[in-house]
Structure formats: C-alpha cells, structure tokens
UniProtKB/TrEMBL annotation:
Organism of derivation: Chromobacterium sphagni
Protein family according to the UniProt entry: Belongs to the Dps family.
Gene Ontology MF terms: ferric iron binding; oxidoreductase activity, acting on metal ions
Domain Ferritin/DPS: 17-154
Protein's recorded name: DNA starvation/stationary phase protection protein
Bilayer-crossing regions: none
InterPro entries linked to this entry: DPS_DNA-bd (IPR002177), DPS_DNA-bd_CS (IPR023188), Ferritin-like (IPR012347), Ferritin-like_SF (IPR009078), Ferritin_DPS_dom (IPR008331)
Length: 154
C-alpha cells in the first residue's frame, strides 16, 4: 500500500480511530438505551432528541470504520474490542433523566478529547481525509454536548 502515509503512521492513526470508534459505538449504545428507557416530564423531548443522536452516531461509526479500512487496517467490531478500547463507561441500571443527560454530556466530551488526541499524528502524516473526519466529528459532538448541557441549566 502506497497512499503517501508510511505504515507506522497509518498504524498509529488506525489505533486512534479504533479508540474513537469504540467510544462512538459505546455512546451510541448508551444513547439508544436511554432513548428506550427515559421517563419523566421531559420524556417526549428526550426520547426524540436521543433518537436523533443515536441515528447520527449509527452513520458515523460506519465512516470511522471505513477510514480505518482505507488506511489498510481492520476495524474493531466486537463488544469485547469496544470494552477494551473505550473511555466511556457503560450505564448501570436505568438512571433518572437528568443523570442520563449528564452521562451523555460526559460521553460527548470524552469523544471530543479522543478525537483531539489523534490530531498530532494525523497532521504529522499529512492525512487530510482523517483530519476532515475528526473535524466533522468534533463539530457534532461539541454541539450535542452543548445542547444537552443546556437542558441541565435551571
């Protein structure tokens, strides 16, 4: 494979993207879980908001996995892989709506940090497609975290 990025950099980028994929899939699953199980006075608002968020992430995980493949590496695709690679804790039980929101804010902020941690090697390698993907993911996750945070203001 000769796409202008050396093997070591492609491996390092793919590893970073694998962590991003694991965080994204874990947050997708958590958001879907909360969509199913949210209750309380904000039920309709949160139910619809969570649905829009997990649908967006369902498409995003495919983009991240395909970028890993384009770099010549295999994308992780099992719960065991994701559990090993993610920085986002699973939800235990069914939290109250405000706790769901807080956990999702934390998850989106974690995804932002994970995405940012990959930029150094991406920039060094001149990997513009991955930089563009990371920038797009940051825009989505920063905006989503802001919108969720706004629900917690009194």
């Amino acid at each position: 494979m000769d796409i202008g990025i050396n093997e070591q950099d492609r491996q390092d980028i793919a590893h970073g993207l694998s962590r991003l994929l694991a965080d994204s899939y874990t947050l997708y699953l958590k958001t879907h879980n909360f969509h199913w199980n949210v209750t309380g006075p904000m039920f309709n608002t949160l139910h619809l908001m969570f649905e829009a968020q997990y649908n967006e992430m369902a498409l995003a995980v495919d983009l991240v996995a395909e970028r890993i493949r384009a770099l010549g590496h295999y994308a992780p695709g099992s719960y065991a892989d994701y559990a090993r690679l993610t920085s986002i804790p699973e939800a235990s039980g069914v939290p109250k709506a405000d706790d769901m929101i807080r956990q999702l804010v934390d998850g989106h902020e974690t995804l932002c940090r994970t995405a940012r941690s990959i930029f150094a090697v991406v920039e060094k390698a001149g990997d513009e497609p991955t930089a563009d993907l990371l920038t797009q993911r940051l825009q989505v996750h920063e905006k989503t975290a802001w919108m969720l945070r706004s629900l917690l203001e009194k």
